[in-house]
Amino acid sequence: MNQTVLLAERNKVLTITINRPERRNALDTAAYTALTQAFESATGRNDLHAIILQGAQQYFTAGNDLRDFQSKPEGESPGLRFLKALVNTDIPVIAAVEGAAIGIGVTMLMHCDFIIAASDTSFRIPFVPLGLCPEGASSVLLAQYVGIRKANEWLYLGQPFTAQEAFESKFINKIVPPGQALDKASKMANTMATQSLLSLKTTKSLLKRTLTPLIYETLDCEREAFIKCLISDEAQAAFQQFFTKPEKLKS
């Protein structure tokens, strides 16, 4: 497994850690590939009851590494393959979020079963400011989580929002003090480790029964729209502006 993603198993729980702290855990092709392999390998096993997803050094992820957005992807992008692997996961996934979740760092959370976030976490979905459009089935799922008015606000404006706002909007399950997201997620996962695996998998399958076909349809629609936006002059200009900003302004 590529060291951009770290795996640890204990007590029927798999912890997956995005490990690019020097890039605020931004996701490049290697990271996406490693994440896809991790989730695909975990699916179908009879000795895992839950998965915890986190970022290294108490920072979830800055989203897609924009250096990978300089050319049109051929076929499915690594990010889309990862999202499909996450959608297909057959056991509960608990996200332990610290620091910030940006872009796909937010949209991937919509495919997790539980989200535990530190109180000082910042969330942002900056697709429109970057000349892009929703991805990760967020054009459908976000409104189901938080309502269409709040979804419009977060998607159209692309401004940061706090953990408290995310909690009040019912986007996340719990807020914990900074540094304690993993501990809370571990306690939840350890509870699941004592429960029937058949019951856990069956419950997840039933909860997703009607959503999964819609998610796949939406992922395909968004992919075509995203590529058109990606290769537009507006998006490329936004990326160039991002790369020329001082590093301290990119967070």
UniProtKB/TrEMBL annotation:
InterPro entries, per database record: ClpP/crotonase-like_dom_sf, ECH/Chromodomain_protein, Enoyl-CoA_hydra/iso
Subcellular location as annotated: Peroxisome
Keyword Thylakoid in annotation: no
Natural source organism: Advenella mandrilli
Coiled coil regions in record: none
Transmembrane regions listed in the UniProt entry: none
Protein name as it appears in the record: Enoyl-CoA hydratase/isomerase family protein
UniProt-listed Gene3D superfamilies: 2-enoyl-CoA Hydratase, Chain A, domain 1
UniProt keyword terms in alphabetical order: Isomerase, Peroxisome
